[in-house]
């Protein structure tokens, strides 16, 4: 059943599978079904919206490469970044069941994304109920991440807030093979960190300097290295339980 | 509204100078920091380090010069009345 203009997920990568398998064990049949999902590959530039608040999309997107974020802009024009998304993430999966999007998703860096029609996602969930369960589990983990962010933004000091987010990104990047040891590419700007954590870019700048001075991070352009993982976890009050990873990656 | 400025050193951890900003009733309304050279594009700008009352909350804008910062502070305070 070929659909002209569309490919399936298999030739490019199986990042979605890798992501799902980091939180859920899939059978061979389920893996094959996911690989045969129809998808439209699209290359996007940096700072480009993928979907906007108020949209009613008929497809969801999988991030294949690059960094994206979900966000909302207040009536006063201020942007709150609500989450960062990396390869394997489906930042607008909720549009499968919620008719109108209540937030926007945009790229931070140039991204390659796959758009999967909702029809195909519904069909695969009907045929493979455990895949539906995996998506449900993924959505519940997203909610756990939001709870953790709420705790950070509301109660953690700015220094811990940033250390915590660095820990989260490290563990999530590592779960999809995008970290080597405790080193990873982090193309998120200080202004974007600020918009995510309720801090001014000036405060973020000072805290990054302090983290470097305290030996918690080393940076070289967009590359971040964490020389002492335990120390950073402690500074960030970070416990990876909320990411609910199946494998030992959680312990990193 | 006339604002009065008083030079001060601000303990940001980076030896930065700044200004205490008082309103015409001599109430402290804000602390401005003159950003040192570590902030890329924002270096040399004036940052609203802290604000009180109407200037409180999460908004910490930066301004290219002191005059622009004062104009914004005065206007924001006037809106609160």
What keywords describe this structure?
heterodimer; A: 252 residues; alpha+beta; Jelly Rolls; Arc Repressor Mutant, subunit A; 2 domains; four-stranded antiparallel sheet; 8 helices; 12 strands; B: 81 residues; five-stranded antiparallel sheet; 1 helix; 5 strands; 17% helix
Kindly describe this structure.
The complex is a heterodimer of chains A (about 250) and B (about 80). Chain A is of the alpha+beta class and about 250 residues long. Chain A folds into 2 domains: about 5-140, Jelly Rolls (Sandwich), CATH 2.60.120; about 155-250, Winged helix-like DNA-binding domain superfamily/Winged helix DNA-binding domain (Arc Repressor Mutant, subunit A), CATH 1.10.10. Chain A has 8 helices and 12 strands. Chain A has helices at about 15-20, 30-35, 120-125, 130-155, 160-175, 190-195, 200-215, 230-235; strands at about 5-10, 40-45, 50, 60-65, 70-75, 80-85, 105, 110-115, 180, 185, 220, 225. In chain A, the strands form 3 sheets. A 4-stranded antiparallel sheet of chain A has the order 1-2-8-4. In chain A, helix 3 (about 120-125) crosses helix 4 and helix 6 crosses helix 7 (about 200-215). Chain A is globular, with a radius of gyration of 18 Å. Chain B is of the alpha+beta class. Chain B has one domain. Helix content of chain B is about 15%, strand content about 35%. Chain B has one helix at about 65-80, and strands at about 5-10, 15-20, 30-35, 45-50, 60-65. A 5-stranded antiparallel sheet of chain B has the order 1-2-3-4-5. Classes of the chains: A alpha+beta (about 250), B alpha+beta (about 80).
């Amino acid at each position: 059943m070929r659909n002209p203009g569309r490919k399936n997920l298999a030739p490019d990568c199986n990042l979605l599978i890798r992501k799902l398998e980091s939180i859920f064990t899939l059978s061979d049949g389920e893996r094959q079904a996911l690989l045969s999902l129809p998808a439209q590959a699209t290359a996007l530039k940096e700072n480009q919206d993928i979907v906007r608040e108020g949209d009613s999309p008929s497809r969801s997107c999988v991030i294949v490469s690059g960094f994206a974020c979900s966000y909302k802009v207040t009536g006063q024009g201020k942007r709150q970044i609500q989450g960062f998304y990396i390869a394997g993430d489906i930042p607008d999966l909720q549009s499968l069941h919620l008719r109108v999007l209540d937030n926007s998703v945009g790229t931070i860096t140039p991204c390659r994304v796959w758009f999967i029609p909702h029809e195909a996602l519904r069909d695969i969930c009907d045929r493979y109920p455990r895949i539906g369960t995996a998506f449900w589990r993924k959505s519940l983990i997203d909610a756990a991440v939001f709870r953790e962010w709420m705790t950070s933004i509301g109660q953690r000091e700015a220094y811990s807030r940033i250390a915590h987010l660095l820990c989260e990104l490290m563990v999530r990047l590592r779960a999809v093979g995008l970290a080597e040891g405790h080193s990873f590419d982090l193309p998120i700007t200080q202004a974007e960190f600020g918009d995510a954590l309720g801090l001014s870019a000036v405060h973020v700048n000072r805290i990054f300097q302090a983290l470097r001075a305290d030996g918690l991070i080393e940076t070289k352009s967009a590359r971040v290295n964490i020389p002492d993982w335990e120390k950073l976890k402690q500074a960030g009050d970070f416990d990876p339980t909320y990411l609910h990873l199946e494998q030992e990656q959680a312990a990193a | 509204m006339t604002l009065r400025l008083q030079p001060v050193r601000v303990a940001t951890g980076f030896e930065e100078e700044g200004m205490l900003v008082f309103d015409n009733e001599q109430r402290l309304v804000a602390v401005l920091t003159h950003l040192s050279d570590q902030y890329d594009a924002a270096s040399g700008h004036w940052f609203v380090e802290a604000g009180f009352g109407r200037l409180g909350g999460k908004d910490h804008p930066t301004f290219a010069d002191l005059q622009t910062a004062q104009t914004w502070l005065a206007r924001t305070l006037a809106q609160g009345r």
